[in-house]
Structure formats: structure tokens, C-alpha cells
Amino acid sequence: MKRLNKWFSLKVDLAEFERRGGVRRFALKMAFRAVLLSFALCLVVLPVNHVLGLAPDFSNAVLLSVLFSWLIGGAVSGLMALALGSAMRELTLSRARFERLSRTDMLSGLLNRRAFSELLAQGEENASLAIFDLDRFKAINDRHGHLAGDTVIRSVATAIREVFGAPHVAARLGGEEFGVVIRGGDIQSRIELVERVRQRIAEQRVAFEDVAISTTISVGVAEFGERRGEIVYSSADRALYLAKAAGRNRVVHESELALSFRRDEGEAGSIEVVPPTRTAVSLS
Which one-letter DSSP state was computed for residue 282? Predict the structure, then answer.
């Protein structure tokens, strides 16, 4: 009985219903099992009816049972399966849309902080982490309003997305801060991509109503290697802080941190660089 139940049961994988063909395959499997089950029941019931004199000639009864099994059982179960499969497909697509929205920042169209944190927790090998932060973004909001600030955010997100396509991954971490996992190549080539974005944003003018708004970004870059994601993020964050302290609108690699600390110790009047007070990205 257990084997029979297992054979007639339909294990549903919702991923199959993302394609329309999955609905048809589900309907065919359901109809085929229904027909076989109908035919098996007929073969059990007809001999009993024949013995009791409640059925016509046995051979004709078998032919009728086969015919009606396919016509009635197949048609009814097929229609039901199509209706059920279509409903399940809509449910599957809705789930996929919800999952996509839950991992997407609505303003920029990039990944959100939660999705980016999950990515960092997985770790990388031949990759860099770049943290971008718009310079003096509060002044844009104060002078032109938050709608202008949103327009600038979208413009910066577009520049990041166009430079960092696959296999790189970009996200908006919140406010005016963005993060990118830069994959492949060597360190210098990855830094060159970051510099390309920095220069592009510095040169562009964002049109808002009758105003052309200019902005710049500062960037901190760190290497993954065999380190945990939160360590890499913390190092990139310190490099970003150094870029801000050194005058903004520049890219600083984590390798410059040690040099900066030594220079601060040996030169009077140099910029004092202290660890940032911002909270590192949560990887929970």
C-alpha cells in the first residue's frame, strides 16, 4: 500500500511552475495516474459485477472500462490539473517576485543591504570589496530637497550598475552608501574599475528641475583573500574613512592604511586618522 501511495502521489516542485511547460507536464502526469487508477478500479469492480449478474459480457465490459477510463478520467483530471497547475504557477511567480523585491533596494534597483550581507557572509576568493559614499550628500538634500537627493542616488546607482555588470555584484547599503563585490582580474584592474566610476560620477551633472547637480564619491577598497566578510568590510570602511579625511573624491586601498599611520606618527601637522565610528555591516 505504501508503494502504491508513493507511485500515485504527485510530488510538486514549485520551481517547475516558473515555466508554462511545467503546468502541462503536471497536468499530463496527473491525468495519466488518474486514468490508470480508474482502469485498475474497473478491473477490480467488473468481475464482481459479472459474477453477481450486474454487468454485461465481461470482454465488452473491459473494453468499455478502458474507453471510459481514458475519456472520463483523463478529461476530468486533466482539466482539474490544468486549473490547479495554473494557480500554482501564479503562486510560484508571486513567490519569486516577492523574493526578488525583498532583496532589492526600491530606489536604486540594486541589491539591498540584507542581500549584500548574505553575499559577504559566503566569502570570496579572487575579489575586492569597494564601499562607495557620496560626498556631502546632506548638503544636496538641504539645498535642493529630498527628491533631488533621490535623483542623485538613482544616477549614481546607474553609473555603478553600468560599470559593474556580471560577475560583479552591486548593492545600496543605505542612505548614500553603496557596496560592490568586484570579482576576477588582479587588484590593479579592479581598482581601475572603481576609478572609472569615481571619475564618471565626478564629471556628470544630474538634472533636477532647472538645476544641474554635481557630486563626487569617496571609496574604500579591501581584499577578500581568506578573510571573513565582516573583516573585509571593516577594512574597506577604514579605507573609506581615510579617503574622506584626505579630501574626498578619491579611492583609497586598504594597503594605504599602514602607510598613513606611519606618516602620521612621523610628521607633525598631518591628518589624524582614527578608526570609523560607524557600525559595520551585519552578517547575521
Answer: P
